[in-house]
Amino acid sequence: MGKLLWVLVAVVLVFGKWVGGFFEFNETEIFYTGAEAYGYFNESKPFNNALMVGLTLIQGARGRGAVCLDGTLPGYHLHRGYGSGANSWLIQLEGGGWCNNIRNCVYRKKTRRGSSRYMEKLVPFIGILSDKPQENPDFFNWNRVKLRYCDGGSFAGDSENKAAQLKFRGQRIWLAAMEDLMSKGMHYANQALLSGCSAGGLASILHCDEFRNMFPRTTRVKCLSDAGLFLDAVDVSGGRTLRNMYSGVVGLQGVRNSLPPICTNHLDPTSCFFPQNIISNVKTPLFILNAAYDSWQIQSSLAPPTADRHGYWSECRKNHAKCSASQIQFLQGFRNQMLRAIRGFSMSRQNGLFINSCFAHCQSERQDTWFADNSPVLRNKAIAIAVGDWYFDRSGVKAIDCPYPCDKTCHNLVFR
């Protein structure tokens, strides 16, 4: 009876809007349904009980030019570890899309994605950031950090536009934050995990080896990319919506110097902003967590309104249950492209994979998908257990789901 009651709860957690032709999640309202429209975790409960952690601005950042789009100081939220986790550090890079032209970036600098002036002073630590062992069994007592995202370039740009008063200093923000955290005890870490969601998941790939090199070789260092496997995919009109956007981000924000030379030596910089072209060359152990039918990529890369002039995809884009057989076939092609993209990466024993056949995005940051009674599972393992098993070398994890609609444990996103 208790489970049935959850069906009656309106689970509202991610609200999105279209900005500059791309769907922007602002992580406050989303609607969830399961394969059975059943068994959902009531998100009002973890938010009511969640640890709220304050914002720390990085006071020394301005001196090195490490500022948000509008020139304000960057910041992070830190909750100290204790006991066995006192010298363990988890860095979570916040996501939130990108800005790829002056107009979008000017808009963005007046939001929390471009200015610390608008950032929440307190944020809930749930999912991989939770301080409760029953919600986060392996990392609950670590030093846990959420680095706020205010550059619009996956912490990778280093440029500016004086006319528009825009600072593209993501790479400097990354370095200033790491330096500040090192001074607060991260220097003594005996184990560390760099994670990130969405644009932050891409950043965790881009900065993974750099993060590894900040520590002694005796420190266990690994990286986790959640919903960061953005594919260079063809959209429903035959164009390349995401490639065009990435081209703008890379050019406008001066991202090239942050990209791995092993890639830029033989591919153009835009191609090297796509994880599929760099993951096999990351030397540090890396775990890729991704939904095979990533909701953001369906919304903004595969079937955005700009590629769907007649609205054929308008209902399917918002709710997979309303997709036609041909639309599902198109989305199966996207999943197949994702599996091809990770083929070489998966051959390395040190890497980990959890690719579930869900319509989801950012599964490590939500309690219901990270670790709860009804969490998504693959091979009977919840995401939190799979990541922990991989990180601590308890077992190898290379979990790839069967195609939709076989997985009945998904927490699928539906938009209204």
UniProtKB/TrEMBL annotation:
The protein's enzyme class: hydrolase
Leader sequence segment: 1-16
Natural source organism: Hevea brasiliensis (Para rubber tree)
UniProt name for this protein: Pectin acetylesterase
Main subcellular location of this protein, as a coarse class: secreted
Classification via InterPro entries: PAE/NOTUM
Lineage: Eukaryota, Viridiplantae, Streptophyta, Embryophyta, Tracheophyta
E.C. number: 3.1.1.-
Function, as annotated: Hydrolyzes acetyl esters in homogalacturonan regions of pectin. In type I primary cell wall, galacturonic acid residues of pectin can be acetylated at the O-2 and O-3 positions. Decreasing the degree of acetylation of pectin gels in vitro alters their physical properties.
Source taxon at top rank: Eukaryota
Entry keyword Magnesium: no
Keyword Mitochondrion: no
